[in-house]
Amino acid sequence: MPAELTVLGLSGLLLMAHVFAATHYKTKQYGVDWNMGARDEDTPPLNDIAARLDRARGNFLETLPLAIIALGGVVLADKATALTALAAWLWLGARVIYLPLYWAGIPKLRTLVWGAGLVALLYVLGVLLLG
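User: That's the sequence. What structure does it adopt?
Assistant: Structure tokens below.
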């Protein structure tokens, strides 16, 4: 299997980690009844950790479609190379590092790691579009 598809599969596991971490801390704050209910009631703002994890989850969900397009696209277009595979792994590594950095509230390094992941995806997207 191409590395790009392996990375996409692993990104599914990372997505689950994001969702479970964010939901765990929301449930700690709002309670199990909130988690198991319709969640229609007004709730107070999330505490710092729960809010950061929720934002990290949202950020991952914003960038995951680009990864699917770029990484899946180079495989479908038969343009995958050792460099697109390396870029895929760099993107995934950056996204794995990003979660605990955001969780811990480390702003500048977190942004640099996010940027490195984005550059890796932009490279793959460039290969897809420009060959």
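The CA atoms of residues 56 and 69 lie 20 Å apart.
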